[in-house]
Amino acid sequence: MIYILRKLFSIVTVVLFTLVLAHPLSVSAVTPPTPSQCSGMTFDNTIVGKAKSETLTGTSGRDLIFGMGGSDSINSLGGNDCIVTSDNAASTVNAGAGNDVVVAQGTDTVRGNAGNDKMYGQGAVSFYGEGGSDELRAPGTASLANGGSGIDTCESGHNVNCEVIITPTPIPITPPATPPLCSSMTFDNTIVGTSRSETLTGTEGKDLIFGMGGADTIHGLGSDDCLVGGEGADSIYGDNGNDVLLANTGADDLHGGTGDDMLSAPGTATFADGGANTDTCESGFNVNCEVEITPTPSP
């Protein structure tokens, strides 16, 4: 009797396991709403990515593709497609043939290839229209639009090969809070960088300059300035005046110049050159610093 029950249990187990293999449980992806930029378009296929970096490939038909999360590589192939990326990673889009619409965000790179394409972006996106007469709209100051061949319309921070240029509407920028080491200083000007690598130059007045993202070069010029690096490997020059130079993250180089300067770059890969006069330095390696502060190790 026991043998028969065990035999029946084994048979039932095998049958159930076979059914699971034949009909696996699946979690259907939730399709996001179609963006307004693609309204009026019809699609043969909808492709929804996952919250990870992956390669998504369309078809020769009309595809609606959502990148979702991760640094995706999206190739839409043929047809008039609508491609939407996520905003939390840098994705690469090759729109392929057809008159495509791409809605990009963050630091995406989009190539239109053939066709009359439309690209819309927020952030530091890079658009390359390539073939066809394209419309590239990315009003952020850190964006790039390269129309390529054809009669292209561009709205971006940096326009190349564009026959029609639309001046972006300025977006108000809220500067970061003044660092504690500069809290007692007063300023005539505040300059805020972007996420790109760039050169930021102050004035002969008292400047508060934030490098933000990218590997920046910052010059304070005259008067007493507060110069704050960003996320990249920055080179910061106080020039004249009693300046405060502050590194953020990255292997930064700080150069005080003339005046009694304060240079703070606590990372071990940083460099501080106080220059002339009496300077206070905190960095991985110091020269020309009359007062040296040992960086506090990170926990």
Record the SSE blueprint.
Blueprint: H1 2-22, E1 45-48, E2 55-57, E3 63-66, E4 73-75, E5 82-84, E6 92-94, E7 101-104, E8 109-111, E9 118-121, E10 126-128, E11 135-138, E12 144-146, E13 153-156, E14 158-160, E15 164-165, E16 189-192, E17 199-201, E18 207-210, E19 217-219, E20 226-228, E21 235-237, E22 244-246, E23 253-255, E24 262-265, E25 271-273, E26 280-283, E27 285-287, E28 291-292
Structural notes for this entry:
The protein has two domains: 127 residues, no CATH class; 113 residues. It is mainly beta and 299 residues long. An eight-stranded parallel β-sheet has the order 1-3-5-7-9-11-13-15, with no helix packed on it. Strands 2-4-6-8-10-12-14 form a seven-stranded parallel β-sheet, with no helix packed on it. It has a seven-stranded parallel β-sheet with strand order 16-18-20-22-24-26-28, with no helix packed on it. 7% of the residues lie in helices and 31% in strands. The N terminus is likely disordered.
Contiguous low-pLDDT stretches (5 residues minimum) are 1-28
- SS element count, helices: 1
Shape: elongated
Strand content: 25-35%
Largest sheet: 8 strands, parallel
Q: Strand order within the widest sheet? A: 1-3-5-7-9-11-13-15
Q: For the residues shown, what is the average pLDDT?
A: 84
Radius of gyration: 27 Å
